[in-house]
Amino acid sequence: MRYDRFSLYTNLQFRGKSYNANVPNITDQVSNNSFSVWNLYAKYRIIDRRSRLDIFIKVRNLLNQRYYHVTEANVFNSPLIAQDPIRITAGISFQICK
Fold it and tell me: Which position has the higher pLDDT, 31 or 71?
């Protein structure tokens, strides 16, 4: 979505329940529960002439959804590995145009 010098982008990632069936010496099937992660990116263009200057903010896992990942290696050490919590990145982008 764009409005004048402001831009907003969003995406939703969904992963259904998945299984890891190739774990040696384990009779139960190891699985990952389904989860959704919502990401957001916004920027504002300050200068738009011969060069461009933007400020931006990027938010991964906007709703701080807890989700876990299980792999073959995790079965023997730790059954669930927590994935990224909310992560916020902000900055300034400068581009010289021809």
Answer: 31
